[in-house]
Amino acid sequence: xxxxxxxxxxxxxxxxxxxxxxxxxxxxxxxxxxxxxxxxxxxxxxxxxxxxxxxxxxxxxxxxxxxxxxxxxxxxxxxxxxxxxxxxxxxxxxxxxxxxxxxxxxxxxxxxxxxxxxxxxxxxxxxxxxxxxxxxxxxxxxxxxxxxxxxxxxxxxxxxxxxxxxxxxxxxxxxxxxxxxxxxxxxxxxxxxxxxxxxxxxxxxxxxxxxxxxxxxxxxxxxxxxxxxxxxxxxxxxxxxxxxxxxxxxxxxxxxxxxxxxxxxxxxxxxxxxxxxxxxxxxxxxxxxxxxxxxxxxxxxxxxxxxxxxxxxxxxxxxxxxxxxxxxxxxxxxxxxxxxxxxxxxxxxxxxxxxxxxxxxxxxxxxxxxxxxxxxxxxxxxxxxxxxxxxxxxxxxxxxxxxxxxxxxxxxxxxxxxxxxxxxxxxxxxxxxxxxxxxxxxxxxxxxxxxxxxxxxxxxxxxxxxxxxxxxxxxxxxxxxxxxxxxxxxxxxxxxxxxxxx
Amino acid sequence: xxxxxxxxxxxxxxxxxxxxxxxxxxxxxxxxxxxxxxxxxxxxxxxxxxxxxxxxxxxxxxxxxxxxxxxxxxxxxxxxxxxxxxxxxxxxxxxxxxxxxxxxxxxxxxxxxxxxxxxxxxxxxxxxxxxxxxxxxxxxxxxxxxxxxxxxxxxxxxxxxxxxxxxxxxxxxxxxxxxxxxxxxxxxxxxxxxxxxxxxxxxxxxxxxxxxxxxxxxxxxxxxxxxxxxxxxxxxxxxxxxxxxxxxxxxxxxxxxxxxxxxxxxxxxxxxxxxxxxxxxxxxxxxxxxxxxxxxxxxxxxxxxxxxxxxxxxxxxxxxxxxxxxxxxxxxxxxxxxxxxxxxxxxxxxxxxxxxxxxxxxxxxxxxxxxxxxxxxxxxxxxxxxxxxxxxxxxxxxx
Lengths: 502, 399
What we know:
heterodimer; A: alpha/beta; Cytochrome Bc1 Complex, Chain D, domain 2; 3 domains; 13-stranded parallel beta sheet; 11-stranded parallel beta sheet; 8 helices; 34 strands; B: mainly alpha; two-stranded antiparallel ribbon; 33% helix; heme (chain A)
């Protein structure tokens, strides 16, 4: 037998190993991206509760088309192409753009492969990653970094879902829905935001669940919003962990009906790096939970520890934001309810006013719960448990828990903006056509009754004419095309005109 | 003979007709009556007449659910509540009064002098001019969509149009009139007697016109001044092509939380109707205007002004309460030049938190201006009367 040389053995085994790895990779290693699951629109997965369900909340099926965006192309182009009901899938790669969505029912889903995220990188030059105004917007699985303004900002879109996003240093806010109703913000991880990582502003019916926020000025801020549930979040090393606020000077004046439940609010001692003049710039480092002027806030079953100023601060506007003045903002926090919470190790290094006030009590530590200023009707379940200041007028609470309140999301989505065809016709006629046409007399264009006579029983004739008018009358100015109206509105107004009586 | 008779008859009858006509017309000339058309019985554009003879505002923004009373939101958001329900006759009478210089002491100034339909319902001046060309303190705001506003004047000191108009009417610096003199003037004009009787059918025949009727009619007309058909509105209602690439870039700068324009100039009215201290400079030589501090007796409102709507903003230069900025470009530049940069020394204003240092680039500022120009719409511009009940000339007929 001829002895094989050791070198050959080594080379052979390397080759074999290589083949093995190759085969293994080709058979088992390749991620089949064709099987990316469709977003479920699942709206509830709080494992902790008994009657949990993974039922599809809005029964929304993705019946639209799926548009894929791969590295090197633009998400915005996909949005332009998309119609309501469509799903846009974004594959790993870096996308430096501002994506705006002024359409309803568009879903954007990042596809994470091998730990590679589709990443929106603002390079500290672009203002916002996502701006939306449409209803029914879903944004999930994106990594968003280095924007100047916001990661995700909504203006007046209802029924939104923003989840599973990883957001780092996107400027002022991470996730900021404004003027929205019925929204879910969950399973996002946000850090290094110079104001609030998650800021629910002037909204109603929003659930903020299972998010991790750290190294921000404010972790989560519920501001001038009603019916909000903040549950199962982990807020750590922010300047302030969880905030429920009224900010004066905004057009919507109230915050009430807020539940802060089952959250970890731990070690929120980050130095305040908020922009000068911003409301959060005044938050002392070491603030666990801050309730300012908000009413009917329930604080329940949270773990609130290691916050160096106070565990919970409850103040009126005069105390919390003494500079601002808005006679229409009621500045007292009323009917705050503190239920059972685990609180210890708070107030180890109080600062500013709280330090001064506590020194008058011969105490160098800040309290677990600190209340100062106006407000009435507030209660606490077990005052003896905590080190408190200013809770003398807090009576025993009337409730023991809020377990029956599982969500503030609405049982059904806010209905789409829609009016009957007849009403759309009427609104279009008076809102647009009436500028030039009156029924029985000439304004700028011919009287509507003449138009009726010409197009009797032929609404399509009117639709065709207003889409591309031909100047038929020498004594009248040429009509500008009304092609900006939707086909639906054009037909509706044509039918409306033909049915007018006076 | 027969032919001659016929001719004679024709001549005779023509002569009689001619004499009659002469008598008729000379009688017309002999009184102070100027022929004014009857008041309109149809609503102005943007309004639908209901069975109670009331004009109800109807436009494409009525498609959207009212999610908040303030009427603020995004592209497809409902407007706030409007002053409507006036009769077509009240509105039309208000139009005559609005354009009639008979309302001022020296019969030279009408409401339209400072709220001119040819100047975006403003006057194009840094600050307006009152009687004798006297310079006033602040600029005239555009009246488009004024029926939606809950506070009037730059410092918000009036809360209804009726209350507001008393000041310019009876201020010595502005129209210089007195209630007594105004009522005397209007009651002496036969046309107005008739028109008021038509607009207010419940009044007694010989009842004198009173001030409430005058202010109600003018408020009715002012509330009818609408502008909701701009290119921006077309985009908002869903027509993507209404705005070009630059304009959309501008919209995105406008609503981003970097520039934060939309936080106060919130669609669809482009104002959230709040007060804000932004610290703009006054024109050279003028002291700081304390703004809302005075009427509300509140130091924290020193230098605060009501957030103005931006609709038709391109038509209403110069900008800010005393017209310091001549162009939109200069105006948007102000917001990126630093928080409080123009506050006079020694003043400690509580600058609004949205005024910060967004570090907008020149490119972004140019796009913002592009976008602001898409807010122009004068398709419902009011019609200036050819003839006024007082017989005086409107600024339209005099120019």
